[in-house]
């Protein structure tokens, strides 16, 4: 048994002793399967808006609500293309001085909360994390350093395709997603984000062919 | 059962712009932005249509008179018409400028057709010459009947005949282009086809608005006529003696009134989905506003709205001596029963949103959506939570000059300055023909950022209708710029100055 698996096993035993129900992982977008385990009550930091959308997409497709706090530049059409249900999305672009109370209130009810462009004081982070733990939602910190986040997701080796010295237009992006779980070696996977047809898929997967004739 | 009559003045936005010195047969069009929203019959004869671009309309009809669209002015111009109708019928419900409904005062005038004729005569006498009537069991069928009537005449749908009447109409009359397009692709072309769908399927696929449209197609419009005159016992009146000046005290004193307002409605089996709150100070109306609710108002919702409205800067300058809560849209609870168990906003979410709104003000919480437009910024549809967005541009329509997908993940609310230079460091600007003076070689985002080589670029996408016009003052176009670090940007250049509008993050 690897060390990581052992720790997970011990954690599960601890939860049993605490009398909490076993928490199932939240659903993730298929391209993130086996790459990041999204567990209720945890914080995930992301380095790009599209990664925040990718994390939102899984729960949102299951009918969950999400909220985006502090982002005036959240691209709604892109979010929809990633699979975020906009009709179940609450935006608070400028929470002003009350952003901590706003975040705390939303974390109590909305299962997926995105916080953008903040510097987190460690005390505030603890307060939010406690409520998050109690209500079993996840928090996605985009462009925001968060102490003791469960994993950090970022894009490396980004290559846009489709432009040719004025001709064409941006069509597809190939990038490596790197997931750094605390205390584990980073996991990487090459993705199309999106591919030529606007789909998000794993890069080394051959396109699905349909048998004809 | 009360029969419904709808009066329709076609092309109202045009009619409301007709001055005393404008000839009635002038070719006129009302435009919103660059798009025609209404045109006169003379303009239509020349080939001008709704949804047409301004320059196309001008090309077809060079002497066309163009006016800017002003919905508020249209509504004001419709008020005298409502007054005229009100002289003959007690209950007039304005539906939108140019369209109003009422219960038919048939017995008094000796028949439905006769009543319509009397009304038309009254309006024609006062200068509204193009007026058409439709009479049916429900509002939707009556409106469709009015649209089929010749000028100064009426179409009467017999009692119980609404479903038969609307059966042959195309699905586009539902007024939801997106849904109509989808239905057409599903092979459903008429309301009769749509009415045959299972209600459960309609709900899963189209949500509450689809369910409502389904009832229209079945000839049973649940919408009640919203009367202009509200029964005085439904208005919640709260006098303050002595006048109050603290928001919290006002909100506290509103509580019981709000509860009795809601329970008065509930006794009639109704709920309010839109209310108007009027605040009086010094014996005068100092602030009034209409609030809508995605479901319906509970008593605490009403207290919240009063509190928010009292906090609007400049709304209350003197102690408040009376607040009135007026139901603007009332619906039967039974009409909501279909949606009660289906979609609708999650109640927990609704409550937490109300809590956040009380912290930050109502405008801080937004609903998200996508609408039509050429640039990513235009396609963002953000509206205050609970308010229906006023005007939504159709996404399905072709938008010439629009930036192709994929859409950028970050769309800046205000463009940020950038700099783009050629290989020799010379500035790159747009030529009169919409091309570039040189190839972009380096760019930086703001004066304090490092320069970065350009790895790829695409464009231009013209921004202005007149971009090819050498004499046009504005030379403005959009470009996609990719840096060697893999970051991709949507930039816009105007008069040699570059801006970043969005990031493909």
Structural description of this entry:
Helix content of chain A is 29%, strand content 28%. Chain A has 213 residues and is an alpha/beta fold. Chain A has a single domain (23-202), classed as P-loop containing nucleotide triphosphate hydrolases (Rossmann fold, 3-Layer(aba) Sandwich), CATH 3.40.50.300. In chain A, α4 runs parallel beside α5. The longest helix of chain A has 16 residues, at 3-18. The model of chain A has no long low-confidence stretch (mean pLDDT 87). Chain B has a 6-stranded antiparallel barrel with strand order 15-16-17-18-19-20. In chain B, a hairpin with a 2-residue loop joins β10 and β11. Chain B starts with a strand and ends with a strand. In chain B, 31% of the residues lie in helices and 28% in strands. Chain B has helices at residues 12-15, 41-45, 54-60, 71-86, 106-109, 112-125, 139-148, 162-167, 177-185, 191-195, 199-217, 247-267, 299-311, 333-340, 347-360, 376-379, and strands at 4-8, 28-32, 35-39, 65-68, 92-96, 99-103, 132-136, 154-156, 236-244, 270-281, 284-292, 320-332, 366-370, 380-384, 410-421, 442-444, 452-462, 476-483, 488-494, 497-504. Chain B is of the alpha+beta class and 505 residues long. In chain B, α12 (247-267) packs antiparallel against α13 (299-311). The chains are: A alpha/beta (213), B alpha+beta (505). The interface between A and B is large, with 54 and 50 residues. β3 (89-92) of chain A pairs antiparallel with β13 of chain B, so a sheet runs across the interface.
Summarize the amount of helix of chain A as a percent range: 25-40%
- The helix content of chain B is 25-40%
Give the C-alpha Rg of chain A.
Answer: 18 Å
Q: Determine the oligomeric state from the structure.
A: heterodimer
CATH architecture of the largest domain in chain B: 3-Layer(aba) Sandwich
The CATH fourth-level homologous superfamily of chain A = P-loop containing nucleotide triphosphate hydrolases
- Cα(first) to Cα(last) distance of chain B is 59 Å
Number of domains of chain A: 1
Shape of chain B: globular
Strand order of the largest sheet of chain A: 3-2-4-5-1-6-7-8-9
Shape of chain A: globular
Assign the CATH class of chain A.
Alpha Beta
Give the end-to-end Cα distance of chain A, rounded to a whole number of Å: 48 Å
| CATH level-3 fold name of the largest domain in chain B | MutS, DNA mismatch repair protein, domain I
* Unreliable sequence segments of chain A: none
CATH architecture of chain A: 3-Layer(aba) Sandwich
The beta-strand count of chain B equals 20
Q: By helix and strand content of chain A, what is the structural category?
A: alpha/beta
């Amino acid at each position: 048994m690897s060390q990581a698996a052992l720790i997970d096993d011990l954690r599960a035993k601890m939860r049993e002793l605490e009398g909490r129900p076993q928490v199932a992982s939240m659903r993730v977008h298929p391209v993130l399967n086996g790459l990041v385990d999204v567990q209720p009550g945890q914080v995930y930091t992301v380095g790009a808006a599209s990664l925040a959308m990718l994390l939102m997409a899984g729960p949102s497709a299951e009918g969950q609500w999400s909220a985006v706090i502090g982002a005036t530049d959240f691209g709604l059409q892109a979010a929809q293309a990633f699979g975020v249900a906009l009709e179940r999305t609450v935006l608070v672009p400028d929470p002003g001085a009350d952003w901590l109370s706003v975040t705390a209130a939303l974390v109590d009810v909305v299962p997926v909360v995105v916080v953008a462009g903040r510097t987190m004081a460690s005390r505030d982070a603890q307060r939010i994390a406690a409520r998050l733990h109690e209500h079993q939602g996840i928090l996605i910190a985009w462009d925001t350093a968060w102490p003791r986040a469960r994993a950090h997701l970022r894009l490396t080796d980004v290559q846009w395709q489709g432009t040719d010295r004025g001709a064409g237009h941006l069509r597809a992006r190939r990038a490596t997603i790197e997931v750094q779980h605390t205390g584990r070696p980073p996991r990487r996977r090459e993705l199309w984000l999106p591919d030529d047809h606007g789909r998000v898929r794993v890069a080394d997967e051959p396109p699905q062919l349909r048998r004809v004739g | 059962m009360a029969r419904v009559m709808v009066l329709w003045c076609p092309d109202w936005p045009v009619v409301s712009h007709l001055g005393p010195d404008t000839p009635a047969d002038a070719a006129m069009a009302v435009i919103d932005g660059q798009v025609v929203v209404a045109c006169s019959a003379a303009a239509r004869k020349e080939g001008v249509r709704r949804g047409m671009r301004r320059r196309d309309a001008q090309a077809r009809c060079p002497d066309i008179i163009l006016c800017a669209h002003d919905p508020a002015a249209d509504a004001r111009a419709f008020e005298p018409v409502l007054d005229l109708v009100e002289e003959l019928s007690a209950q007039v419900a304005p539906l939108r400028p140019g369209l109003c409904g009422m219960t038919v005062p048939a017995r008094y005038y000796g028949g439905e057709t006769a009543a319509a004729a009397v009304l038309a005569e009254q309006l024609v006498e006062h200068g509204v010459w193009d007026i058409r009537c439709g009479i049916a069991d429900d509002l939707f069928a009556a409106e469709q009947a009015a649209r089929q009537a010749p000028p100064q005449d009426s179409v009467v749908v017999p009692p119980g005949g609404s479903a038969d009447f609307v059966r042959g109409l195309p699905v586009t009359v539902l007024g939801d282009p997106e849904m109509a397009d989808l239905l057409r692709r599903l092979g459903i072309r008429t309301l009769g086809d749509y009415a045959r769908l299972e209600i459960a399927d309609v709900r899963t696929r189209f949500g509450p608005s689809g369910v409502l449209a389904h009832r229209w197609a079945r000839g049973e419009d649940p919408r009640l006529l919203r009367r202009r005159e509200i029964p005085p016992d439904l208005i919640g009146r709260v006098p303050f003696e002595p006048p109050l000046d603290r928001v919290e005290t006002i909100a506290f004193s509103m509580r019981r009134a709000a509860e009795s307002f809601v329970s008065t409605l509930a006794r009639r089996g109704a709920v309010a989905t839109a209310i108007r709150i009027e605040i009086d100070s010094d014996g005068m109306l100092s602030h009034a506003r209409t609030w809508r609710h995605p479901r319906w108002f509970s008593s605490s919702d009403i207290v919240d709205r009063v509190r928010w409205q009292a906090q609007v800067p400049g709304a209350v300058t003197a102690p408040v001596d009376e607040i009135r809560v007026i139901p603007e849209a009332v619906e039967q609870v039974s009409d909501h029963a279909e949606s009660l168990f289906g979609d609708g906003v999650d109640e927990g979410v609704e409550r937490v949103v109300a809590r956040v709104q009380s912290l930050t003000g109502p405008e801080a919480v937004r609903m998200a959506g996508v609408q039509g437009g050429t640039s990513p910024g235009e396609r963002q549809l953000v509206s205050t939570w609970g308010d229906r967005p006023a005007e939504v541009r159709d996404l399905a329509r072709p938008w010439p000059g629009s930036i192709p997908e994929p859409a950028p993940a970050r769309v800046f609310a205000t463009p940020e300055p950038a700099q783009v230079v050629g290989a020799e460091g010379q500035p790159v600007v747009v030529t009169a023909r919409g091309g570039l003076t040189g190839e972009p070689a380096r760019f930086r985002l703001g004066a304090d950022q490092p320069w970065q080589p350009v790895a790829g670029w695409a464009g231009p996408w013209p921004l202005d209708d007149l971009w090819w016009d050498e004499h046009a003052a504005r030379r403005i176009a959009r470009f996609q710029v990719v840096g060697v670090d893999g970051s991709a940007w949507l930039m816009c250049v105007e008069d040699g100055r570059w801006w970043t509008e969005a990031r493909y993050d």
